[in-house]
Design goal:
This protein has 107 residues and is mostly helical. It has a single domain, classed as Tetratricopeptide repeat domain (Serine Threonine Protein Phosphatase 5, Tetratricopeptide repeat). It contains six helices and no strands. Helix 2 packs parallel to helix 4 and helix 4 packs parallel to helix 6.
Length: 107
C-alpha cells in the first residue's frame, strides 16, 4: 500500500463517528473517575474537551464537578446548559436545585 493511500485511510478512520464516540466516552469516564478521586479541576478539564461533541452529558457532569468544588454559580450555569439539551436530565435538575438552595442560604 502506498503512503498516500494509507494516510487517506487513517484520516477517514480518525474522522469516523466511532472514534469520536470513543473520544467522548474516554474523557467522560476519566472525568467521572477524577471527580470521585476529588481531582475536580482535572475532571472539569476532561468535560471541557467533550462539550462540543456531547454537550448534554458534558455540561451536566461538569456541573457536578463544580458542585463538588462548592462553586454554585458555575455549577448552576452548567446544569442549565445540560437541561437546555435535555430537560429530563434528573441529576442536572436536582443538582441545580441543590446549588440554588445553597445560594439562597448564603444570602
Amino acid at each position: 500500500m502506498r503512503t498516500r493511500e494509507f494516510a487517506g485511510i487513517v484520516v477517514r478512520y480518525l474522522g469516523s463517528r466511532d472514534v469520536l464516540r470513543d473520544f467522548v466516552r474516554c474523557h467522560v469516564t476519566r472525568g467521572e473517575a477524577d471527580s470521585r478521586k476529588g481531582d475536580y479541576d482535572r475532571a472539569i478539564a476532561d468535560f471541557d474537551r467533550t462539550i462540543q461533541r456531547d454537550p448534554k452529558h458534558a455540561y451536566a457532569e461538569r456541573g457536578e464537578a463544580y458542585e463538588a468544588k462548592n462553586d454554585p454559580k458555575h455549577a448552576i450555569a452548567d446544569f442549565d446548559q445540560g437541561l437546555k439539551f435535555d430537560p429530563s436530565l434528573a441529576d442536572a435538575q436536582r443538582g441545580r436545585e441543590r446549588m440554588q438552595a445553597q445560594l439562597t442560604k448564603e444570602k
